[in-house]
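FAQ

Q: What does a record look like?
A: Structure on top, sequence underneath. For example:
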């Protein structure tokens, strides 16, 4: 099975678009959401169970 020249060009363009979308949008967004989610989790844990942090 051989691909025609037009399909190979379209496939490369789609691959480049998907790569740029992943590297410029999806991965940074996921990183921010993971860090924000962890921060929210710690905040809720302290609010409900541990109380505010206290020093000596």
């Amino acid at each position: 099975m051989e691909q025609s020249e037009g399909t190979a060009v379209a496939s490369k363009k789609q691959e480049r678009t998907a790569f740029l979308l992943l590297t410029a949008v999806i991965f940074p967004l996921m990183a921010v959401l993971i860090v924000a989610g962890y921060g929210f989790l710690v905040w809720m844990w302290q609010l409900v169970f541990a109380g505010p942090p206290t020093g000596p």
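Q: Is there anything notable about this one?
A: Helices lie at 5-50.
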